[in-house]
Amino acid sequence: MESFLVVVFLIISCASLAFSAGPCKVGATRKLPINQTFLSSFSLLAWSYEGDTGPNHWKGVCETGKRQSPIDIKSSDAVYNALGKFDLKNYDKKLDLNFTVANNGHGMVVSLAGGNYTVSGGGLVGSYKTVQFHLHWGPNNDEGSEHVVNGTAYPAEMHFVSCNTNYPNVTEALKYPDGLAVLGVFIKVEGDDNDAWSFLDFAANVTKYKSSVVVPASDFAVFNKMLPASKSDYYRYNGSLTTPTCNEVVTWTVFKDAVNISKRQIGLLRKLEKQDGKPLKENYRPPMPLNDRTVKASFNATSVATNPPPAAGSTTMPTGGASVSRMTAGLFLSMLLILFTLQ
Ligand SMILES: *[C@@H]1O[C@H](CO)[C@@H](O)[C@H](O)[C@H]1NC(C)=O
Ligand SMILES: *[C@@H]1O[C@H](CO)[C@@H](O)[C@H](O)[C@H]1NC(C)=O
Ligand SMILES: *[C@@H]1O[C@H](CO)[C@@H](O)[C@H](O)[C@H]1NC(C)=O
Ligand SMILES: *[C@@H]1O[C@H](CO)[C@@H](O)[C@H](O)[C@H]1NC(C)=O
Ligand SMILES: *[C@@H]1O[C@H](CO)[C@@H](O)[C@H](O)[C@H]1NC(C)=O
Ligand SMILES: *[C@@H]1O[C@H](CO)[C@@H](O)[C@H](O)[C@H]1NC(C)=O
Ligand SMILES: *[C@@H]1O[C@H](CO)[C@@H](O)[C@H](O)[C@H]1NC(C)=O
Ligand SMILES: *[C@@H]1O[C@H](CO)[C@@H](O)[C@H](O)[C@H]1NC(C)=O
Ligand SMILES: *[C@@H]1O[C@H](CO)[C@@H](O)[C@H](O)[C@H]1NC(C)=O
């Protein structure tokens, strides 16, 4: 019991760290059923990407949800929609800020406090503050991304997570279907080191479980350079966090074009350690059923041949509990989930 409490404490601490970003703001929208959130809260404490606690055993909404992420994007089924250009505020600037780079046991997470970067446009309703970005990868270049296109995965995928400014914080945003917007970037392993992704070198500073470093934003390339050059070609659908508690609150953007990183750079990620001290070789959730959802494409996806990538993957994010709200425990679990997911 004692160790359980310690774990919970650590999780909470982490979560606050991860989501300490500035307020999103307050608004009114219908809340999701509490029941769902409640159930999902409990899957947090012991989830992983393997064995008895792997994706096939995640509970709650992860198991029962009908708008789960990631998905296999069948480009020929994507419906063309002129969603428009993104407005990525400060994504072209190096601000006088510090970022926190952490290994949360589920991945590498870079947390941004202050809400200085915002995402709007691109068919999104409203404005979203970027709170963190994190990565998913696999043990080899045939797998690692969470989304897959036409059944083909990439070696890795990055997620920029942003919180709807209608809500005061991520914990609150997790209760609403329009709570988060995530920008997904496919990663290929090709060629020399990609300088725009030199922050991957910080993976070597957080090899150990729960380790973190504070790094000046000036040591990162501007975010625009981390994103694909073509930011106007992307897929859009309504989905979820790809980690417990799998809250169905994410408006997904998955860019059509991948970015390249080197073999050395992806190797840094594969050296991160899990809680048990062993390498975190993979941290992706496999594709979930599309069900009755529509995938939109901002471009004519039926006439475009996609780049050849690797195999299959997954994504994760924060979790939150709503019904538990009566008990503080609920909030608390949510925070934990969120932390882990972000990682
Ligand atoms: C909670 O969710 C489960 C699974 O979706 C459902 O079967 C059950 O009726 C729900 N309970 C309440 C009180 O809403
Ligand atoms: C960033 O961190 C450094 C070292 O901890 C500190 O001196 C500096 O004031 C911080 N900068 C900002 C903008 O918080
Ligand atoms: C970042 O956002 C915070 C909170 O809104 C603000 O106080 C700070 O001045 C901003 N920093 C920069 C460098 O824009
Ligand atoms: C998030 O916002 C809600 C509603 O304003 C507040 O009750 C809660 O304490 C906030 N949580 C955090 C972690 O700041
Ligand atoms: C990261 O590790 C490198 C190599 O050991 C070291 O030079 C650097 O100072 C570390 N960075 C931080 C932010 O701790
Ligand atoms: C996502 O859900 C919203 C609200 O129901 C809807 O307006 C929007 O069209 C959906 N997006 C997609 C891509 O289906
Ligand atoms: C990635 O590599 C491919 C193949 O070498 C190349 O065509 C493409 O231009 C590269 N992309 C970037 C962004 O460097
Ligand atoms: C997309 O491209 C295909 C093949 O060139 C063409 O048949 C189709 O009409 C185009 N669709 C739209 C919406 O432009
Ligand atoms: C996916 O497959 C469809 C046909 O099955 C093809 O038209 C489309 O170009 C493919 N897209 C990619 C990105 O490979």
UniProtKB/TrEMBL annotation:
Keyword Signal among record annotations: yes
- Taken from the record, one Pfam family name reads Carb_anhydrase
Known InterPro entries for this protein? CA_dom, CA_dom_sf, Carbonic_anhydrase_a-class, Carbonic_anhydrase_a-class_CS
Which cofactor does this sequence's record say it needs?
Zn(2+)
Query: Which SMART domains has this protein been placed in?
Result: Carb_anhydrase
Give the residue range of the signal peptide.
Answer: 1-20
What EC number is given for this enzyme?
4.2.1.1
Does the record bear Lyase in its keywords?
Answer: yes
Q: Which UniProt keywords apply?
A: Lyase, Metal-binding, Signal, Zinc
Q: Where do the Alpha-carbonic anhydrase domain residues begin and end?
A: 45-299
Superkingdom of source: Eukaryota
Q: Which reaction does it catalyse?
A: hydrogencarbonate + H(+) = CO2 + H2O
What the protein does comes down to: Reversible hydration of carbon dioxide.
Q: Which family does it belong to?
A: Belongs to the alpha-carbonic anhydrase family.
Q: What is this protein called?
A: Carbonic anhydrase
